Amino acid sequence: QLQLVESGGGKVQAGGSLKLACAASRYSVSQYTMAWFRQAPGGEREFVAAITGRSDKTLYADSVKGRFTISRDNAANTAYLQMNILKPEDTAAYYCACDPSVYRATQRILPTTATQYDYWGQGTQVTVSS
Predict the structure, then answer these.
(1) What is the four-CA torsion angle of 101, 42, 123, 118, rounded to 10 degrees?
(2) How many CB atoms within 10 Å of residue 125?
């Protein structure tokens, strides 16, 4: 089964930056949509960003648009989330996810609901202090 492992989380002051990585193993994810979600304590898992297999289309939540950048390196089977100008409200556990739908991949559909992603990492904590 596909495994996803996130890294790069940590503590940072407001205005700072972090870059998260999501390494996939056991199967290639090069043709599939990859996404990042986050979940704050007591909150629901919310969509952050998604990217198509060929990196020709991306989608962002309004709350992170202009500050976060999703990217991927298919040769490394890894997705990334560059987070700049971090705010205390960005504090959450960040999860990467893979949508294994070949149909949605070929149609370049980027799902924003967690239920459409079948594979998840264990999460990495990001804490932003004011």
Answers:
(1) -20
(2) 12
| Number of neighbours of residue 127 by Cβ within 10 angstroms | 15
- In the chain, the amino acid numbered 79 is A
- Alpha carbon 122 to chain centroid, angstroms: 12
Provide the CB-side half-sphere exposure for 52 (13 A, CA). Answer: 14
DSSP state of 109: -
How many alpha carbons fall within 13 Å on the CB side of residue 109?
A: 12
Confidence of residue 54 (pLDDT cuts 50, 70, 90): very high
- How many CA atoms lie within 13 Å of 89's alpha carbon, on the beta-carbon side? 4
- Interatomic CA distance for residues 47 and 73, integer angstroms: 21
Per residue in 89-127, pLDDT (tens digit) is: 999 999 999 999 999 999 999 999 999 999 999 999 999
Distance between CA atoms of 107 and 54, rounded to whole angstroms? 12
